[in-house]
C-alpha cells in the first residue's frame, strides 16, 4: 500500500507570538517550526497502517520554505517514513491553504497513492481546508475528524471512525481517499536517537512549487493581531456561598447579559 | 573565529532530549525526589530512545556521540531532574574504561550484548576509606591461574544495586600505590559480588547509590582491561572524558533554577509590583544568567577540545568545577528569590540546591579539580 | 455588490442544526437590505428544514432531496451546493461551524472556484471584497484575511453570530440538479453510529453555555456538582484533561488543545486551574467565569468573573440560585 502523509511545519506550541514588521502575519524571526499535534497523529496513523499492511510504504510530503519544511520532513523520516518530498515554496511565508492543496495535488498526481493522510487542520492557522480541497482536486472522497483508520484486507476497504457533534460514526470506503486526522488519539511515537542521526542523511526529493493559477480566487492574510491582554477576572466579593451565587448571577444577567 | 552555532543534527538531538525531559522526566521529578524512588521505567524509555549509551560507538550498538553532542543532551535532561540524569548517563562513565582500555575482542564481547538490551552499568572506583585519593584504594585483586580473585568494598557507586555490569578498579599490590591499580569488567552475576543497599541521600534521590562488596569474586583474566598497573591511568583518562558532561548536568540544573526564579519574579507581587521590578531581584537574575552562560560556554569549549582529539584535562576540570559551583550558587539565589516559599518542599527550587550540591562533589570533588587546574596551570610556568 | 448569500443547511434528525440558524443571522448582519438570502438543504427529506428557513425569513430554499444524503459523505454534496450557489446568483456561501461544515468548505472552494476560509468570527465588505476575521493559534491570535476574486465560501465559527429573530415568510423551494458527481464520491458508507457520550444537555460544540469541571473536584463522585449546575443552565458539560485522563468522564467531553475547542456565550470553569492546554480550547468564549479555591490559578487571568472559594460550597449555592431565578 502506498501511503502519503502531508505534513506542515508549524511554530512549536510554546512560541511567543508577535506580528511581523509588515503586520500581516506571524513574525517568523527566531521561531522554531516543528511537527505538531494533528500532523503527528497523521504520521503515527500512517506508520501504524504501514506496520499492519505488509509491503506498505509511507512518503511524507511537505510544502514550505527552507529549512523548516526539510526539517519537518526529516523529523517524519526519523519517525519511520520511508521517503520524503519537499515542495519548495520559496519565500512565500503565508500562502492560502487552498493553494497549498493545489501544490500538493500537483505533486501527488505523479506519486503513487492509495491513501493520503493529513492532520484535520494545522496547529497554527487552524484552517482545515487542505483535505477537502485535495479530495476535490484528486477526484476522491475526503473525510475530516477521523480517528483509528484501518485496512480491512479481506474486503479491500478502509474502516475508520469520525467524531461529529453528537455521533461517533463508523465508515468504510475503498481507496484512494484523503483523510484528515484528529489529534491525540493514537499516542504518537518519539523518534529514537539513531533514527534521528540517520534521517540527517536521508535524501529529500525536492520539487518546485507549481506556478499559481492566476484565475483562482484566494484569500490572503492582511493583519495578524494579538488579543488585548485580559484584564483578569473581576472577583466576586462575598461573605457566604449564597451571597457569592446571588452576586455572580446578578452580574451575569445585568452586566455580561449572558442569560435572561 | 569560533562558531557557536549548532548543526541541524545537534539541534535535533537537543530537541529529542528536551522532549524526553519534559514529557517523561519532569512530571515525575518531584515525586521520585520525595519518595527516593528509582524510576526504572524512565531509564528503560531513555534506553529505548538511545539516550543511555551515548558514548559507545554505533558498531557496538551505542549512540556514538561526541562530547559536545553528549553535553547538549545531558543539559536538557538535567533541566528536568539532575538525579535521573545521573542514573541515565552512568553507563557512559562505566563503559568509558572499556572504550579506552579494552581490546577489540573485549569491546565486542562486553559492549555489543550490553547495548543490545536495556541495562545499567556502574563505575566502581570509590571506596569507604577514600574517594579522591584513588591511589590509596584497598580492594585487592589476586591472580590465581586464569582468574583474579577480588576482595574489598566500593561505595557511593551510582546505580550499583540495579546494574548488571561493573568496571572495577582494584590493586594487585597496595605497596605499588597508583602503579598497582588494575581495571576489570565484572558481571554482577559473578559469585562473591554483593551489591549493598541504597544510600539515603540529600539530593539526586531519583538516582541510586550503593556499595558493592567483593568476597572472593573470581574474575577471568580475559576481563582485565589493559595490563596490571594500568588501571589508575585508565580511571583518570575516563574521568577526563566524562567530567565535561557533569558541567553540562550542572548547567541544566542552574538553568532550571533560573527559569523558576524568573517566572516566579514576574508573578509574585510585593510593594505593589512584581518583584521582578525590584532592583534587588533584577541583580540576582542578572548574576544568575551570567553564571549560566559562562558555565555553558566553558562546558561547550571543553567538549569541543575533547572532540578535537585533545585530552582536555584542564578544560574539562575548569568546566566541571565552574559549572557545579555556579549551579549551587544559582540554585541558592533561586531559593532566595522565592523567599519563604523557596524553602518549602511544595516548590521546586530547594530540590535544585540539593541536586546541585552533588555536582560539586562527585566525579572528582571540586577541591581535586582545583588542584588539577593549578597543576596544569603551573606546568606552563615551570 | 449584487450577489445573493447562500446559507448551507445541515440536518440533524430532520431539523436544521443551531449553527445554521446562526449562519442565517450572519447573512442578515453582513448584507444590505436588498441582498437576497437563499437557503440550501440536502437530505432524504427537506420539507421541514425548508419551513424552518421560511420561519427565519428566508423565502428561497434550494433543495436536494435524495435518500442517498442520509448517509452520503460530504464529498458528494459539494457539487449540489456549488450548483445551488450558481443557480441563486450567489457571490458568498456561508457554511455553519460544524464538523460537517468544516469538511465542506475546502472542497467547495475548489469546486466553485471561490476563496475559502473557516472558523470565521466576523465577515465584512471592505474595498469591494469580503474580509474576514478568524482566531488562530488556539485563540492566542487573530488574523484578518481578504478574499480576492468574485466568489467566497466562508465557514463560520459556532456562536460568532446570533440567530435572527423569527420573521416568517412564504417559502419557495427549488430542486438543485447538478451534473451527477463522480460515482466514487458516493461509495463510502456510514455503517454504524452511536451517540457521543455527553451529559444530558446539548452537545459541547453546539451549546451556548458550557460548564466544565477539573481536578479541583477531587474525585469522580463529586462531578455531579458540575452536572447539576449545567442542568440548571441548560448547558453542556465539559471537563479538563486531568479529569478525562483520570477516567472520571469520557474523553469526548475534554475541552482543550487535545480535545474540543468551544466558544460558547458563557463558559464556567469549576475547579480548573487553567493550564495552557485547557485555555486554548475555551479562550474564545464570550464570557468566562472561574470558580477556584486558588486565587493565583492562571484561569483567573483569562476569566471575566471569578469566585475564589470552596467550590463544594459555591457550586451548590449557584445551582440553587439559578434554579430560583429561572423559576421566578
Count of individual helical segments of chain B: 10
* Helix-residue proportion of chain B: 40-55%
Q: Per the principal axes of the C-alpha atoms, what is the gross shape of chain C? A: elongated
Tell me the number of helical segments of chain C per DSSP (H or I, 4 or more residues long).
Answer: 9
Q: What percent of residues of chain C are in strands?
A: 25-35%
Main β-sheet of chain C: number of strands, strand sense, barrel status?
7 strands, parallel
Number of strands of chain C: 18
Assembly type: heterotrimer
- Order of secondary-structure elements of chain C: EEEHEHEHEHEEEEEEEEHEHEHEHEH
- Gyration radius from CA atoms of chain B, angstroms: 21 Å
Structural write-up:
The complex is a heterotrimer of chains A (260), B (382) and C (328). Chain A has 260 residues and is of the alpha/beta class. Chain A is 27% helix and 28% strand. Chain A has 6 helices and 13 strands. In chain A, the strands form 2 sheets. Chain A has a 9-stranded mixed beta sheet, sandwiched between helices. In chain A, 50% of the residues are buried. Chain B is of the alpha+beta class. Helices cover 53% and strands 15% of the residues of chain B. A 4-stranded mixed beta sheet of chain B has the order 1-4-5-8. In chain B, strands 2-3-7-6 form a 4-stranded antiparallel beta sheet, covered by helices on one side. In chain B, strands 9-10 form a two-stranded antiparallel sheet. In chain B, α7 packs antiparallel against α8 (313-338). The model of chain B has no long low-confidence stretch (mean pLDDT 95). Chain C is of the alpha/beta class and 328 residues long. Chain C is built from 9 helices and 18 strands. The mean pLDDT of chain C is 91. In chain C, α3 crosses α4 (99-111) and α5 runs parallel beside α9. Chain C has helices spanning 18-30, 47-55, 74-88, 99-111, 224-233, 241-245, 276-282, 299-302, 311-327, and strands at residues 4-8, 11-12, 15-16, 37-43, 60-65, 90-95, 115-120, 122-126, 129-136, 141-148, 152-156, 172-175, 189-195, 209-213, 236-239, 266-270, 287-292, 305-308. Classes of the chains: A alpha/beta (260), B alpha+beta (382), C alpha/beta (328). Chains in contact: A-B, A-C. At the A-C interface, α3, α4, β7, β9 and β12 of A face α3, α4, β7, β9 and β10 of C.
